[in-house]
Amino acid sequence: MAHELVEALSTMKEKDALRIVDEMLERGAEPAEILALCSEAMQVVGDKFSEGEYFLPELMMSGEMLKKIGQVLKPRMAGETAGKAKLGRVVLGTVRGDIHDIGKDLVGFILDVNGFEVTDLGINVPEEKFVEAVRENKPQVLALSGFLSVAFDSMKTTIEQVEAAGLRDGLRVIIGGGQMDNTVRDYVKADAYGESAMDAVAFAKKTVGVA
Pseudo-torsion of CA 99, 121, 145, 20, nearest 10°? Predict the structure, then answer.
């Protein structure tokens, strides 16, 4: 049913997607497996947006579908980390000039259920707000999200301002979303690029020394 779920999510068939999720859970599928498929579907949506086949309404619909699936999965995953100390802290947000949260929300959810304390700053976040959040929360990881090319320079200046504030030492920065790749990572001087939400989790765990 994996293909059917990716297809339903990437073609905006919310009822079908929720039904498939329920059926997969009934058949014993792990929530992490379903989340990985959601991430795959969102990559398809992102590609369609980049190609001009999808527009902002489709991105918003995708985000709403993810939230509903998250509501189904979170209770099943919460028990895995209940009562355990947090592995670390992550500050997350979509950078200035970009209002897309499709990937950010999924990353935040998966980090949360994997035991991280997540401070989600939302969308269109100015550089100074990231600096303030890093100063106050003292995270090990700063996760910058962006869907459009306008986010490239915002990511760069965000990292520069964090560094100028003396907060870069010991802080690892990962970028992700839409048109991001390793070339953009080099341009903005981040430590890593995450192609999927699971990449962000793996990076955060490695940063705090958890296998």
Answer: -80
pTM of the entire predicted model: 0.84
Residue 201 belongs to domain spanning: 88-207
* Residues 190 and 140 placed together within one structural domain of the fold: yes
Distance of alpha carbon 196 from alpha carbon 134, whole angstroms: 23
**One domain for residues 102 and 199:** yes
Same domain, yes or no: 72 and 144: no
**Can you tell me the distance from the alpha carbon of 121 to that of 169, in angstroms, rounded to the nearest whole number?**
21
pLDDT tens string 85-98: 889 999 999 999 99
Integer Cα distance of 21 and 18 in angstroms: 5
CB 122 within 8 A of CB 186: no
What is the domain count for the chain? Answer: 2
* 163 φ, ψ (degrees, to nearest 5): -65, -40
* Nearest in space to 75 (alpha carbons), one of 135, 117, 31, 36: 31
> Cα–Cα distance between 131 and 135 in angstroms, integer?
6
